[in-house]
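Memo to structure team: turn this sequence into structure tokens by end of day. - J.P.
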Amino acid sequence: MTTPDSTRSRPSWRTVLIWTAISVAAAAAWGVIALARGEEVSAFWLVLAALGSYAIGYRFYARFIAVKVLRVDDTRATPAERLDDGVDFQPTDRRVLLGHHFAAVAGAGPLVGPVLAAQMGYLPSTMWIIIGAIFAGCVQDMVVLFISMRRNGRSLGQLARDEIGPIGGAAALVGVFSIMIILLAVLALVVVNALAASPWGTFSIAMTIPIALLMGFYMRTLRPGRVLETSLIGVALLVLAIVAGGWVQASSWADAFTLSPQTLVFCLVIYGFVAAVLPVWMLLAPRDYLSTFMKIGTIGLLAVGVLIVAPVLQTEAITDFALDGTGPVFSGKLFPFVFITIACGALSGFHSLIASGTTPKMIQKESQVRMIGYGAMLMESFVAVMALIAACILDPGLYYAMNAPAGLLGTTVESASTAVANLGFTITPQDLQAAADAVGEESLVARTGGAPTLAVGMSEILSSVFGGDGLKAFWYHFAIMFEALFILTTVDAGTRVGRFMLQDTLGNVWKPLGRVSWKPGIWATSAVVVLAWGYFLYAGVNDPLGGINQLFPLFGIANQLLAAIALTVATTVLVKSGRLKWAWVTAVPLAWVAVVTLTASWQKVFSTDPRIGFFAQRERYADALGQGEVLAPAKDLDQMRTVVTNSTVDGVLAAFFAILVVIVILNAAWVCWRAVRATEPLPSTEAPYVESRLLVSAGRFSSAKDADPTEDRP
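Reply from structure team:
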């Protein structure tokens, strides 16, 4: 059997020249980034290195995985076609699905992680974001999406149970679900911090819900299939909502949309429940698709600004904090903490939940896993690069005045200026106040969490191109709203995925709960998920040490441990399905992430430094509490008790997650050993082949045999 790919002659000279030029440009950019010392480095080189590397990775490595490793087959019906129920399973236009998937996976990580990791310098962060995405993050997303799609959209936990066995599967089910709860809580916490006391952001975010509902009904009932038309209407309404947010902030309605963090917690819990139980076409898919326009548009606008302005990186390539581990933003040395701080921008376990949750139930053709799985992760990686640039172009004095904890900086510009000077950097009280005034804030001191720092960096770049200093405040608040929208779409999709996972697990005990069409089961499991992450969200909002400062290290570890579970499942499936020679594609990133995260877990549990170890921190505050002392930033004994409780919970969870992952990896290794030695293939849970009757534009490969005539259909 022949295909365009198998019969095509050598590439044309034009194709060779284009890819040679891309390779040379990317190599030159990497040379500047890696070798420049003691001289100014433009952010332009980071953008060029990223885009060139992404193009090469997608064109060659992603295609190799699709054709050789996965053997995608577009003659095979996907579960979206076979099980179409109009609620969870539904063939969805690949452009809409790409928007939904990207919006669902691109949350707080690519925005916040790189900003915090800027403390260690731009070089290690840039290398991990780009190289990690191409060879680890994108691979995980693409392979897990394919595996879940071949198994009727099964969740990651259920995949582990089916493919690895009862022991490792049970550990994976518990680990995946509990880790996901922590991830959703931290994502929601970033939203709360961004929207608290911000009527502009709250109003604009709230308006995306009715806009998405309108788009869903418009595309399903009023004008079916009119994707471009619906998109134009949605984008126009979104822009109007953003502009109207500024009007609301200056009007008498401002008080109605000025909400406390505690109130926002309850709003998010209610929204998460509603988003999880409504049909996917009604709210989730159109809202995420709508959000994607703003996400991609804003990041694209920021990239254009960087190329035009070519701002100089103010951060060193590798800072002293990366070597001695005494950074004020977070403690710990470059290895392993830069790799868990930058989680979602390079490799994110959370993505595997979406890739085995909503997306595999909506994909039309198998070849689309390349565009949706690998491509969406590349887009997120670029978001992380832009966030890193936004942080690294700031004056280091301002960066540390915003990101160091309040206990170190104090509450005034004078105390913050002195504290920053003690760190080896300089910013005057006048400059610090001027920076706050320029973006319309009363103070920027100790605005931890990464979101305000990113907003300041974005306002610096965008105001240099559009509007000048007079529009800095506008761009700052626009960026805050953009970040909240970016993250909230991950919370609603993640909650639905949590519901899928819980239904899969409880369905093993009582069959009706496993049916995705049984309404009582949907409502009950959705309520359990939102209440679980709502508890940790509320605890984070009221944490004296700051929810982000306390929960983000646990978030990073949990996220990467979840990636280890996903890559373990992927490697096991490849080995069991006779693809042993290609198992290195997932096994190599698995080995790396396992070493990194287990090392980080060990340090967070057993380190005697209270700045690093959770239990050391607990002991320090517990000893002071026993003597009736109050340690900053706690203000009373009740807050001291809160710190002790939260440190204990964090330490126990870090140890618990690590133990579960070790069990999963060991059990999977035994299964792989049995598969290699077995004379007959081990049982597979892959759905039987059914010929597809869906006619859509899918990809360049029409079937596995067409893609490579030497391979048999799996």
